[in-house]
Design goal:
The complex is a heterodimer of chains A (178) and B (450). Chain A is α+β, with helices and mostly antiparallel strands and 178 residues long. Chain A is 20% helix and 38% strand. Chain A has a single domain, classed as Nuclear Transport Factor 2, Chain: A (Roll). Chain A is globular, with a radius of gyration of 16 Å. Chain B contains 16 helices and 22 strands. The two termini of chain B are 40 Å apart. Classes of the chains: A alpha+beta (178), B alpha+beta (450).
Chain lengths: 178, 450
């Protein structure tokens, strides 16, 4: 089971610095903005295509959670589970998506943190997310992306970790990706 | 409306209940008194308070309580209220209070059983009613606390059946959960989810054994799982646990539903003696249990393949994937679910990994399965506010359920026996403010015997 593969590096602490040109930094920022926009526009197929084959999406249940293997997580998903979530929310008989969840992601404070052991770029941002489905709710937190460079000069997501400010709160359902 | 005994009695018919039981705040308030004020309610597991001073806060009905470990190893349950000004002594959550409780307002202190320890500046107390021995100066303990195999329950009523009598046949689910550990012990591990539902607490209990909803309510998730499985050419565990809801009606009809006194019960998945050796995780688990208990007993333990168990008023243990969905009523239309996961002491790590995966995929707020449940519960809550009818039906397979020495059993897995059994208990609680159902049962049994 890919989810239990403890060799997957979930650390977001850089082991080396990264030197990027201003143009490259702009490219990273635009990538993050585009990722958020695809979620807001519910273009899930395009969003799924932003990931590497073994990319992981993680929303810890605890502050400073070391890994998703010893404790529960609000989300811990590989490619298969991301695809299942998209299939479910797009199913015609998705009673809990009538009406749909609507969202507005605001991504800011983007900083290039450095490189992980495999040379992936670690990027930190702050997220303000307004979600509406019958009720409105605010989600917020720090987001860590680990990005792999693609041959055409773009990026793919290896890890997206969202540290919610209220990860230990009582939640209504979290149906779509944060 | 006036809640006379007659009015309450008329709300529960043999095959239906009046919608007001879900929507009337007055009835909710009365439930807090007559059900949650009397029944044994699960407070937490002893493993949540390992060391002296460790505490875990939760609610018994509408009451904030603290479960705490005292120096002598005993677990106490006290109301979270300082007797001085009424402040909650500890904040909600888990923590360690040390050797005693200390109120953050005026530093009154209390021993870990709640009894008065001290307060600052004794000047000014002379000639007043202050008396450390007077219970009015202590944090009040909940009337009765007992523990079954580490599961701590409390009752706000000094009278009533003991815990084991109250649990009756449903204790077998706690036994099975514990026996899945080679040393017979479990501990809460990996963290607890808390999920809010916009519906009355009883709706969730009913749904736990509602086999007719699975393939309708959960169509979006089992279809998604099946589509994905087809695409990748296999049905791994993560998809399998979503796929199950899509079983045809004939599958559900064959299941057995057990109903015990006091509203408890369980829903059997298929009793499957081969479960022990079906997959690598179970095989490894089986080997460890065989060493501890012998092969026959190990096969029996893992073959006891129960789906949701119901301990009415407390929630729903799931023995096979080591979960306890604790159901906490918040208001007439709000219910909070605390989802605990257990580690089986001495069992292979892979068994805990599987329980965590199940918790993440099925029980977490981000579950692909639960949102459709939560949505239909809310629709029941809202639909029952309309003038479109007064009664909620529980009629399926009425009159066909069989009596057993300790309750009833369905003859068809789509029977609404569990709902009828829950409302029979509800009625007994609600009509007997001073008694608990088991006592009433006992008296009736004594009369019958005489």
């Amino acid at each position: 089971m890919q989810l239990l593969d403890r060799s997957f590096d979930v650390s977001t602490t850089p082991v080396a610095g990264a030197t990027l040109s201003l143009e490259a930094i702009r490219g990273v920022e635009q990538f993050l903005f585009r990722e958020a926009r695809l979620l807001d526009e519910r273009k899930f197929a395009e969003w799924l295509a932003l990931w590497t084959e073994d990319g992981r999406y993680w929303v810890p249940r605890f502050h400073d959670q070391a890994n998703p293997f010893e404790q529960i997580s609000l989300f811990w998903e590989d490619k298969m589970l991301r695809e299942v979530r998209v299939r479910r929310v797009e199913n015609a008989r998705n009673w809990s998506q009538q009406p749909l969840t609507r969202s507005a992601h605001l991504v800011g404070n983007i900083t290039i943190e450095g490189l992980d052991a495999a040379g992936h770029l670690i990027v930190r941002s702050t997220l303000q997310l307004t979600e509406w489905r019958i009720d409105q709710r605010q989600l917020a937190g720090a987001v860590f992306h680990k990005l792999a460079a693609t041959e055409d000069g773009g990026w793919k997501i290896v890890l997206k970790r969202v540290n919610l400010v209220n990860c230990d709160d009582v939640f209504a359902n979290l149906e779509v990706f944060i | 409306m006036s809640l006379t005994t007659e009015a309450l009695a008329a709300m529960v018919r043999e095959d239906s209940v009046h919608k007001h039981v879900y929507t009337d705040p007055e009835i909710f308030a009365l439930e807090m008194e007559r059900i949650y004020g009397q029944a044994w309610i699960y407070v937490g597991h002893e493993s949540q308070v390992k060391k002296t001073g460790d505490y875990h806060t939760t609610r018994i009905g509408d009451q904030d309580v603290i479960m705490v470990r005292a120096a002598d190893g005993k677990v106490h349950v006290v109301y979270n209220r300082c007797p001085h000004k009424g402040a909650k002594v500890v904040p909600d959550g888990d923590g360690c209070t040390g050797k005693f409780f200390r109120c953050p307002y005026h530093a009154w202190t209390f021993k870990l059983d709640g009894s008065h320890l001290s307060l600052p500046l004794k000047n000014g107390l002379e000639g007043t009613c202050y008396d450390p021995a007077n219970p009015d100066f202590s944090m009040k303990a909940v009337a009765r606390v007992d523990s079954y195999r580490g599961f701590v329950f409390a009752s706000q009523s000094a009278e009533g059946p003991d815990l084991l009598t109250f649990l009756g046949g449903v204790a077998s689910s706690i036994d099975n959960l514990c026996e899945r550990s080679p040393v017979g012990e479990v501990e809460v591990a990996g963290g607890t989810f808390r999920v809010m539902q916009k519906s009355n607490w009883k709706v969730f209990y009913e749904n736990l054994h509602d086999t007719m909803h699975a393939r309708v309510t959960h169509e979006s998730s089992f279809v998604a799982a099946r589509e994905e499985a087809k695409e990748i050419g296999e049905m791994p565990f993560e998809l399998l646990i979503m796929d199950g809801n899509g079983e045809p009606y004939e599958f559900w009809e064959k299941l057995e539903l057990r109903a015990y006194h006091n509203g408890h019960g369980y829903m059997e998945a298929i009793f499957d003696p081969a479960a022990a050796t079906r997959d690598p995780v179970s095989r490894e688990h089986f080997a460890v249990l065989t060493e501890a208990y012998g092969e026959e007993k190990a096969r029996q333990i893992l073959g006891m393949n129960r789906h949701n168990t119901i301990i009415y008023g407390s929630g729903s243990p799931h023995t096979v994937f080591q979960q306890f969905r604790v159901i906490r009523p918040v208001s007439v239309d709000r219910t909070m679910i605390e989802i605990q996961t257990f580690r089986l002491k001495g069992a292979p790590d892979a068994v805990f990994d599987r329980a965590l995966t199940y918790a993440n995929l099925i029980n977490s707020p981000s579950s692909n399965v639960m949102p459709d449940d939560v949505e239909v519960y809310k629709r029941c809550q809202e639909g029952n506010q309309t003038r479109g009818g007064d009664w909620v039906s529980l009629h399926r397979y009425l009159g066909t359920d069989k009596e057993t020495p300790d309750g009833m059993v369905s003859t068809n897995g789509t029977s609404e026996l569990p709902m009828r059994n829950q409302f029979a208990a509800w009625k007994q609680y609600m009509l007997n403010p001073a008694k608990t159902p088991t006592q009433a049962d006992k008296k009736e049994a004594d009369r019958a015997a005489a």
